[in-house]
Amino acid sequence: MENFSFFIENRFLQLNPLPIIGSHHALTNQFLEGIPNNDAGLYVAGPYIPMNDNYQNFVNRYTEIYGEPPTSYSTALAYDAAMILFRAIAQASTEIS
């Protein structure tokens, strides 16, 4: 993993006066387990998906329809974005009529 190698080399060579900022792609077990001493110089931003009943209902319904669970939490984000778009289109079309 290229990002992981950069992070380890940066820390090993002590080139760390600045924090390293990454995306949600750094939130993998492989990456996080490879960071020595739970390094405090890493900041990661990503979406928050609450693992509550609403999300579980989405996963269950998705699995029922497609025969397997979603491969990523981003499936739920895409569904939410599409539903917002569809509702906006529906609302706009009734306002024009």
Descriptive report:
Strand 1 (20-22), helix 2 and strand 2 form a beta-alpha-beta unit. With 97 residues, this protein is mainly α. The longest helix has 23 residues, at 74-96. The protein is elongated and about 60 Å long. The mean pLDDT is 78. The protein has helices at 2-12, 29-33, 53-66, 74-96; strands spanning 20-22, 42-44. Helices cover 55% and strands 6% of the residues. It is built from four helices and two strands. The chain has a two-stranded parallel ribbon with strand order 1-2.
Largest sheet: 2 strands, parallel
- Rg over C-alpha atoms, rounded to the nearest angstrom: 20 Å
Would you tell me the structural class of the helices and strands?
mainly alpha
Please trace the helix and strand order, writing H or E for each element. Answer: HEHEHH
**Reading side by side through the largest sheet, how are the strands ordered?**
1-2
| Average pLDDT level | 78
